[in-house]
Amino acid sequence: MPTIGQKVRQAFLAARRAVGKASSEIGYVRKFILPALLLSYHHGRRLGHVSGFPRRRPRTRIVAVVPYYGNQLLLPSFLRYYRRLGVGDFVFLDLSPQRRLAELLAQEGDCAVWLPRGSQSPRLAIHWLNFLRRRYCTGRWCLSVEPSEFFVFPRSESRDIRDLVEFLETEQRNHLFGLTLDMYGDREATEISFAVDDEPFEALPYFDPVGYTCRGLGPLRSAPTEGGVQRRTVFSKAPQLAPPLNRIPLVRWRWSFSYVAGTRLMTPGQLNTAHAPWHLTPTSCLLRCALLDDDLSMAIAERVEATILVRDQATAHYPALFEMRSLRLKHAGSVRYATSEDLVEWGLMTTGQWF
Fold this sequence. Notes:
By secondary structure, the chain is of the alpha/beta class.
């Protein structure tokens, strides 16, 4: 039997551990969560609603929040793809110089468009997008993608995103890890002629199936992952500088959540974990067709990408994409994408416990 003195000492040590844990959590909130919240509320007031529904709609609808940089060629295929996937509402932040997105989507009842008031820097986009996610997505599943990105998950050809989130909820998961794959063709991207009615995967059908590495635990419990065609070509002499490919594209949003470095880092930190502690969970891929973007759209995207709230020593994607547009990227190891099963077979995506 422990003595009274031992019991007092044990109680004291337990209390000290509790105080230390509380102080750590308070410090985490003050350092990461609170600044991101305040900045999004402050800068979000500079946005103006242009068209579409001004506030969130029924709770069961899955919402995609999308920055628009000006390349309207990809927009029809983007909307077709995600509507088939089961996305119910689209919330666009128009960052294009023309500011004509509301006109292009005037007949689309599931699209809302917002604009920055006055002349504003794209570097504030990270705060504007977080503001729109809180406005439209709190209590709902939120998909954060760009118009050149196509979200793929296991069996996404036969199941829609509502089936996926239903399973994630049974596992008590509130987010999904993703890996970005740059798609490319058998010619230089500058030689590819792409029209509004074309499908992106017909123009850019190939991806790199191998050569991906994870650097271990990164900032905010993230899993920094590198590789792919950028590492093979542009960063072949310095592979350690290749841009990170890890993403958190799908989240059941809460008011306290924020993206703090593109969509690869979030607060709180548990949202950056790829799997549950006890088993593998489903993961996803974002097939990026940004090589079809024009120079102006990519320049705006590069400025948006440059703004981060948490330093993670990451190399930016878009400068390398500029360079890759004039390179022949297809090689002997390239694989033509057909279905999500290709990505599972190559180990780029996991099915977890989902059947």
